[in-house]
Design brief:
By secondary structure, this protein is an alpha+beta fold. It has a single domain, classed as NE0471 N-terminal domain-like (2-Layer Sandwich). Strand 1 and strand 2 form a beta hairpin. The relative contact order is 0.19. The C terminus is likely disordered.
Length: 127
Protein backbone atom coordinates (compact mmCIF):
# COMPACT_ATOMS: atom_id res chain seq x y z
CA UNK A 1 0.00 0.00 0.00
CA UNK A 2 1.25 3.46 -0.88
CA UNK A 3 2.23 5.62 2.05
CA UNK A 4 0.21 8.77 2.70
CA UNK A 5 1.80 12.05 1.66
CA UNK A 6 3.64 14.01 4.31
CA UNK A 7 1.82 17.15 3.18
CA UNK A 8 -0.55 18.46 0.53
CA UNK A 9 -0.41 22.15 -0.31
CA UNK A 10 -2.81 23.95 -2.59
CA UNK A 11 -1.44 27.11 -4.18
CA UNK A 12 -4.65 28.96 -4.97
CA UNK A 13 -3.18 31.76 -7.08
CA UNK A 14 -1.25 29.44 -9.43
CA UNK A 15 -3.84 26.62 -9.16
CA UNK A 16 -1.14 24.05 -8.43
CA UNK A 17 -1.54 21.18 -6.00
CA UNK A 18 1.71 20.09 -4.38
CA UNK A 19 1.77 16.56 -3.01
CA UNK A 20 4.80 15.79 -0.86
CA UNK A 21 5.77 12.18 -0.18
CA UNK A 22 8.84 11.04 1.77
CA UNK A 23 10.73 10.16 -1.43
CA UNK A 24 9.20 12.53 -4.01
CA UNK A 25 7.31 15.77 -4.32
CA UNK A 26 4.96 16.46 -7.22
CA UNK A 27 3.26 19.61 -8.47
CA UNK A 28 0.11 19.23 -10.52
CA UNK A 29 -1.76 21.95 -12.36
CA UNK A 30 -5.53 22.04 -12.00
CA UNK A 31 -5.79 21.40 -15.74
CA UNK A 32 -3.59 18.29 -15.56
CA UNK A 33 -5.59 16.88 -12.63
CA UNK A 34 -8.87 17.58 -14.42
CA UNK A 35 -7.93 15.95 -17.73
CA UNK A 36 -6.41 12.93 -15.96
CA UNK A 37 -9.19 12.58 -13.41
CA UNK A 38 -9.51 9.04 -12.04
CA UNK A 39 -13.29 9.25 -12.54
CA UNK A 40 -15.29 6.85 -14.70
CA UNK A 41 -16.31 9.88 -16.79
CA UNK A 42 -12.69 10.23 -17.98
CA UNK A 43 -11.32 6.69 -17.59
CA UNK A 44 -14.41 4.80 -18.66
CA UNK A 45 -16.10 1.97 -16.84
CA UNK A 46 -14.21 -0.90 -18.41
CA UNK A 47 -10.64 0.30 -18.60
CA UNK A 48 -10.92 1.42 -22.21
CA UNK A 49 -9.17 4.45 -23.67
CA UNK A 50 -9.23 7.72 -21.77
CA UNK A 51 -11.82 10.23 -22.87
CA UNK A 52 -10.23 13.37 -24.27
CA UNK A 53 -11.20 16.27 -22.02
CA UNK A 54 -10.55 19.49 -23.93
CA UNK A 55 -11.04 23.16 -23.09
CA UNK A 56 -9.77 22.99 -19.50
CA UNK A 57 -6.84 25.42 -19.62
CA UNK A 58 -8.59 27.84 -17.26
CA UNK A 59 -10.23 25.26 -14.95
CA UNK A 60 -9.86 26.00 -11.25
CA UNK A 61 -9.96 23.87 -8.13
CA UNK A 62 -12.71 25.03 -5.81
CA UNK A 63 -12.57 22.42 -3.05
CA UNK A 64 -10.39 19.66 -1.64
CA UNK A 65 -12.01 17.11 0.64
CA UNK A 66 -10.22 14.29 2.47
CA UNK A 67 -11.67 10.82 1.90
CA UNK A 68 -10.68 8.50 4.71
CA UNK A 69 -6.93 8.09 5.04
CA UNK A 70 -6.33 7.16 1.43
CA UNK A 71 -7.51 9.90 -0.95
CA UNK A 72 -8.86 13.37 -1.60
CA UNK A 73 -11.83 14.43 -3.66
CA UNK A 74 -11.20 17.47 -5.85
CA UNK A 75 -14.02 19.72 -6.99
CA UNK A 76 -13.38 21.81 -10.09
CA UNK A 77 -15.21 24.95 -11.14
CA UNK A 78 -16.71 23.13 -14.14
CA UNK A 79 -18.67 21.01 -11.65
CA UNK A 80 -16.55 17.86 -11.98
CA UNK A 81 -16.04 16.17 -8.61
CA UNK A 82 -16.44 12.44 -9.13
CA UNK A 83 -12.82 11.30 -9.12
CA UNK A 84 -11.08 10.11 -5.96
CA UNK A 85 -7.38 10.88 -6.10
CA UNK A 86 -5.75 8.16 -4.01
CA UNK A 87 -2.19 8.40 -2.80
CA UNK A 88 -1.30 5.75 -5.37
CA UNK A 89 -2.96 7.81 -8.12
CA UNK A 90 -0.81 10.81 -7.20
CA UNK A 91 2.31 8.63 -7.25
CA UNK A 92 1.44 7.22 -10.68
CA UNK A 93 0.47 10.59 -12.18
CA UNK A 94 3.58 12.21 -10.75
CA UNK A 95 5.96 9.56 -12.01
CA UNK A 96 4.51 9.80 -15.54
CA UNK A 97 3.56 13.47 -15.61
CA UNK A 98 5.79 14.60 -18.49
CA UNK A 99 4.81 11.69 -20.72
CA UNK A 100 1.13 11.98 -19.88
CA UNK A 101 1.12 15.72 -20.59
CA UNK A 102 2.81 15.25 -23.98
CA UNK A 103 0.35 12.47 -24.83
CA UNK A 104 -2.50 14.82 -23.96
CA UNK A 105 -1.13 17.61 -26.17
CA UNK A 106 -0.64 15.14 -29.01
CA UNK A 107 -4.23 13.87 -28.72
CA UNK A 108 -5.57 17.41 -28.73
CA UNK A 109 -3.70 18.09 -31.95
CA UNK A 110 -4.76 14.81 -33.57
CA UNK A 111 -8.41 15.42 -32.74
CA UNK A 112 -8.32 19.14 -33.66
CA UNK A 113 -9.24 20.08 -30.11
CA UNK A 114 -7.89 22.81 -27.88
CA UNK A 115 -6.92 23.45 -24.28
CA UNK A 116 -8.78 26.76 -24.54
CA UNK A 117 -12.32 26.89 -23.17
CA UNK A 118 -15.15 27.47 -25.66
CA UNK A 119 -12.91 26.98 -28.65
CA UNK A 120 -15.39 25.26 -30.90
CA UNK A 121 -14.89 26.08 -34.56
CA UNK A 122 -16.55 29.27 -35.67
CA UNK A 123 -18.56 29.09 -38.85
CA UNK A 124 -18.90 31.93 -41.30
CA UNK A 125 -22.27 32.63 -42.80
CA UNK A 126 -22.02 32.42 -46.55
CA UNK A 127 -24.17 34.92 -48.37
Amino acid sequence: MTQAPLDIKFHQKSQYLEVIFAEHSYQFSAEFLRVYSPSAEVRGHGGGPLKLVAGKKQVRITNLKPVGHYAIQITFDDGHDSGLYTWQTFQELGAQQETLWQNYLNRLQQEHASREPNSEPKFKKIT
